[in-house]
């Protein structure tokens, strides 16, 4: 094992806190004196139930999830939820979608299998298309769908849209979940894959307001029916137990995290703000690199950038890797580079990236 | 960590080979010199792709999966597949189901959302209802569904049914997958959750014959469309990467396993036969314990048994735990006890259970 692990900027599955990985390794053959790995525990045994209940309570506390929201631990990821949400919420009626990038576009396409979908606003991929009161919302829609952080495009809603017509807002918050608070007064349902800020791929978190349960279409698979999942404490089918355990350790880590005189999620958010500012400032000051997203909606989590000379891309990635900066290649659909700087990326990692960006520019700019 | 871990008879998530857990722990912070945990790797990076391809190749070799079958690494478990199979294969037509216990009954109920389902044979929960040529099969059915090992009831098809009318056979083999060979000439599709013989919960394996791809209903979610999953090498959505990695280590472990002069899956099958024989012989010779399944279809993996005096159940479980024999409680729907003796349960574990059964009977019988 290297003394210092490299910094890993993967968009997901993504870097995890080192103390969490150390604890997972230490407990691998014997969790809490049980003589079992968490992977080996029945999901209905008292050991795993205690892990599950602690994780759920910690997550609820961290995000201040109101009592009238259920937290579901599911499978299938964001792409699965693109179907599971309309299967549960659309009632076969109307769904409004604001398109701000690749993920919301995919969500709209998938929902068309089940509902009358209307794109009520469409951004350029580099902006948010106005405030919600300028969108052509339908008052009889079953819900409004927004992706509050576009992982590929790097566009983030720093404030959740306020939907004034009473229609529930559904947010796909996969890539900012647990990086900042959520204003639940504006939300009907939130979902996200774990593999950004929370834990291993294969776990999907869903937060759903009570009144939205119980309206699934008949064609909704039982295993993906929110009411069925909620009524069975996420154990209608065998849940991804090990991923829930790792997520629970991450929740504990966030609760104990301190930064700038703050603790917990507030500390994490402030560090995320500082990390993003450091990186965007460097990119904006450069004449080699370019981030193309409008300043008011730049993602704190996923920072896509382009070298002004594409011919330097391969050299950039090779030299970055040699400098201990991994997985900076941009998504294949948009090219360029992307630095994902989730909760587990320390400030030192962003500083190391910034230093490298400047050195590389000095040599090749 | 105890010197000797207890023996864990959980029906799933279930005990895993100790060398696999040790390797997972050792590689937790740095897989293969990459500086990353497997949990932290992009599923599209060369490191994870190498893990995925090795796992797929090893599984294909172990089970002698023919070239015209695709292996899919999915999410959602057996209960998810109960919907996903008819969404992909039923074409909205007819589905024949042989009911041999709890799981096939659930499969039939779920398939009714999408197809005209007929129960073509129904067992007592303790037997297999005759050979397939006695079932009231429909020649225009889209497929015939069988659960080849009923985890709750302990009923196993030791030979796969032969469907003579040309209709594809679908087998839910969750709880015997990788415990024995599969006769692919009789199968159109096989599926199973990983959490029995293979790895952590949250990974579902699907083996599907080429000609059955591409017929999904329009309402099938993209993330669960077999053709979409196959066309994207199981990476249409982010797969459960860490679970695939652990499964891959288990495949390696099975390949290297030796027993009774055999190696690999043949060795594993022989040990499973021997383990089951040891346990059933003990139960049958006892006047305190009783297994109620007919002899020709007793499961090699899940051995339910009852104490003739129910009042002894709690004492039995407490003394078993004290003797290092864990998770022997039967499924809540049928009561009694259940010893699941999957691949990773050594012969010594079954011997320890047998010794305990005899001692307990001597004290309390």
TrEMBL record, chains A, B:
Q: Where is the Aminotransferase class V domain?
A: 7-353
- Signal peptide extent: none
Subcellular location per UniProt equals:
Cytoplasm
Domain of life from the UniProt record? Bacteria
| Cofactor(s) the protein requires to work | pyridoxal 5'-phosphate
Q: Which residues bind L-glutamate?
A: 44
User: What metabolic or biological pathway is this protein involved in?
Assistant: Amino-acid biosynthesis; L-serine biosynthesis; L-serine from 3-phospho-D-glycerate: step 2/3; Cofactor biosynthesis; pyridoxine 5'-phosphate biosynthesis; pyridoxine 5'-phosphate from D-erythrose 4-phosphate: step 3/5
Reactions that this protein is recorded to catalyse: O-phospho-L-serine + 2-oxoglutarate = 3-phosphooxypyruvate + L-glutamate; 4-(phosphooxy)-L-threonine + 2-oxoglutarate = (R)-3-hydroxy-2-oxo-4-phosphooxybutanoate + L-glutamate
* Keyword Phosphoprotein belongs to the record: no
Q: Which PROSITE patterns match?
A: AA_TRANSFER_CLASS_5 (PS00595)
Q: List-wise, which residues carry N6-(pyridoxal phosphate)lysine?
A: 196
> Which keywords has UniProt assigned to this entry?
Amino-acid biosynthesis, Aminotransferase, Cytoplasm, Pyridoxal phosphate, Pyridoxine biosynthesis, Serine biosynthesis, Transferase
Q: Name one molecular function that GO assigns to this entry.
A: O-phospho-L-serine:2-oxoglutarate aminotransferase activity
Nucleus as UniProt keyword: no
What EC number(s) does its UniProt record assign? Answer: 2.6.1.52
Give me the residues that bind pyridoxal 5'-phosphate, please.
103, 151, 172, 195, 237-238
Which InterPro entries does UniProt cross-reference here?
Answer: Aminotrans_V_dom (IPR000192), Aminotrans_V_PyrdxlP_BS (IPR020578), Pser_aminoTfrase (IPR022278), PyrdxlP-dep_Trfase (IPR015424), PyrdxlP-dep_Trfase_major (IPR015421), PyrdxlP-dep_Trfase_small (IPR015422)
Q: How is the cofactor bound?
A: Binds 1 pyridoxal phosphate per subunit.
Family assignment? Belongs to the class-V pyridoxal-phosphate-dependent aminotransferase family. SerC subfamily.
- Role played: Catalyzes the reversible conversion of 3-phosphohydroxypyruvate to phosphoserine and of 3-hydroxy-2-oxo-4-phosphonooxybutanoate to phosphohydroxythreonine.
Query: What's the protein name?
Result: Phosphoserine aminotransferase
Query: To which species is this protein native?
Result: Pelomonas baiyunensis
Lineage, uppermost ranks? Bacteria, Pseudomonadati, Pseudomonadota, Betaproteobacteria, Burkholderiales
Q: What gene makes this protein?
A: serC
């Amino acid at each position: 094992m290297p003394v210092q692990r490299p910094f890993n900027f993967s968009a997901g599955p993504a870097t995890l806190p080192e103390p969490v990985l150390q604890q997972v390794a230490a407990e691998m053959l014997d969790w809490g004196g049980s003589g079992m790995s968490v992977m080996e525990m029945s999901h209905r045994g008292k050991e795993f139930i205690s892990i599950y209940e602690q994780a759920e309570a910690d997550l609820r506390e961290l995000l201040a999830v109101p009592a009238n929201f259920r937290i579901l631990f599911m499978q299938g990821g964001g792409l699965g939820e693109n179907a599971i949400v309309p299967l549960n919420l659309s009632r076969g009626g109307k769904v409004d979608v604001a398109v701000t990038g690749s993920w919301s576009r995919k969500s709209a396409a998938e929902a068309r299998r089940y509902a009358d979908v209307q794109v009520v606003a469409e951004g350029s991929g580099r902006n948010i298309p106005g405030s919600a009161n300028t969108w052509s919302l339908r008052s009889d829609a079953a819900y409004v769908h927004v992706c509050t952080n576009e992982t590929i495009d790097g566009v983030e809603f720093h404030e959740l849209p306020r939907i004034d017509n009473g229609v529930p807002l559904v947010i796909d918050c996969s890539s900012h979940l647990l990086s900042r608070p959520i204003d639940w007064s504006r939300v009907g349902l939130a979902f996200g894959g774990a593999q950004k800020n929370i834990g291993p791929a294969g776990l999907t978190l869903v937060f759903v307001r009570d009144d939205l349960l119980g309206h699934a279409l008949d064609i909704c698979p039982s295993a993906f029916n929110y009411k069925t999942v909620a009524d069975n404490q996420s154990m209608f089918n065998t849940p991804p137990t090990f991923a829930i355990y790792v997520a629970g350790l991450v929740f504990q880590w966030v609760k104990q995290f301190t930064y700038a005189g703050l603790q917990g999620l507030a500390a994490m958010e402030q560090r995320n703000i500082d990390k993003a500012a450091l990186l965007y400032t460097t990119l904006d000051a450069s004449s080699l690199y370019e981030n193309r997203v409008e300043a008011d909606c730049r993602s704190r989590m996923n920072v896509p950038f382009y070298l002004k000379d594409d011919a330097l891309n391969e050299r950039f990635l090779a030299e970055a890797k040699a400098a201990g900066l991994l997985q900076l290649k941009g998504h294949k659909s948009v090219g360029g580079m992307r630095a994902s700087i989730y909760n587990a990326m320390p400030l030192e990692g962003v500083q190391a990236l910034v230093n490298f960006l400047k050195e590389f520019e000095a040599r090749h700019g």
